[in-house]
Amino acid sequence: MKKFFTLIAVALVAISASAQDYDDPKDEITNGKIAWNNLCKDGDFSKYPATKLVNFKVNEWLNGEKVSVGTARVVVDPDDADAFATAVAEETGFSSLHYCLEVCSRDPEVDPETGEAKSLDPWDTQFFITVGDNYLKDGDKVKLKMDVKAEKAAKASTQAHADAGNYNHYAMVGDINFTTEWATFESDEITISAQQAFGQNGDKPGFATIALNLAELKEANKYYFDNIELIVTRQKEVTGDDPQPNKPAGYYIYENDGTDLSTLSVKYFKNYTDAAQSKDGAIVVTSLDPDKSYADLYTDGTAGSEVKLKNNWDTQFLITLPYALKGGEKFHLYFGYKADEEASAETQVHMAAPAPGTIEGVDGYEGTYIHYSLLGNVKFIKYWKWFDQDVTVPTESDAKGGLQSIAFNLNVLRKSINYYFKDIIVAVDESSVPTGISTFKAEKATKAIYNVAGQQIKDLQKGLNIVDGKKVYVK
Question: CATH number for the domain including 130?
């Protein structure tokens, strides 16, 4: 066992920097390493005040309220207790002792009226390992390695936080098991998700802290840590548009070059509108601004002048296909995308989007939602990227007739910005295309198509279509 503990963060862009002094680690992650070396090697704790352990914080909670905040303390390894007593008696030999961090959890509080112990939550004692103000984003990677033991065998779950105590997400590097003997914990390399970086509501500054929940045991315990290494790999910064890949093979059941708005819709709160715009060969959708009143768009008769953003789907962009796809069917989805700034969008499975102006909860209309996830999260940056993947329709789609709309939740960031889409293509194997669609597509260049509202459209839509004055119904 080494006699010191070390925290190292390695950045992809600069891995050759030498170890720095502990005093000012704020910007060191961009230079390559953060290192905390040789703490308390001479046993004089007074030389290492709490300010030097700011990256190892401890919080305690009681009934949801923070009751104490401090730092982990440096102690002599309990295994060296006899050696320490000898060193004190002889006033020598401190440098040969093994030092480590100690964090103490507590027993539950006792109800003074009933005498019963109140239940502890796992996070009632938390130990934080942080890289300071060096916030990481989704797509960055982290790996935690350290030596651990405890006075009593126990488990600690881990969470992702921004700053210590500023919760982002319930899962981080998995559970850490403590025994009464030193053992090495080494996590897998974790790719940080959007929720781990920015929280459920997208309002956190990024990921910078791993939180260990030390009250899983629900009784007092002492936990020890040594040789801590947090290895960070940051994504290479993108400084330009990605080259456009070749268009996919297969039969195109949907194709939009960025100029056709007839198969698109945008949801603001409960109201579906035709708010998508076409500009310079791209479709532009603007998310809502949390500091602005949108009472004029909230048109279901709700009283009050202020409407506050609270859901990731309060701005929702939907692409509607000409017919529904069943669970287990595969299609290839291809499109270009970017945004005014970095943002993450969730994707969902929906039925055919309603006509502009349709309002959920009015006249029996219950919305188009089917399933919470289709493509996972799509990360937007300010340069063009390309989505070019095979997608399998979730089986949950069949309960409501199948997938016909691909939905993007654009309020994860909780900010008004522009999202851009272009060259949207949905391709399938031609053998899976319904006969009416396949026959029509071969002839559509010579035919004029209109929906029931009298708007000219490029492709057949589900329901009633007017083709050269004749009614064509697509199931």
Answer: 2.60.120.260
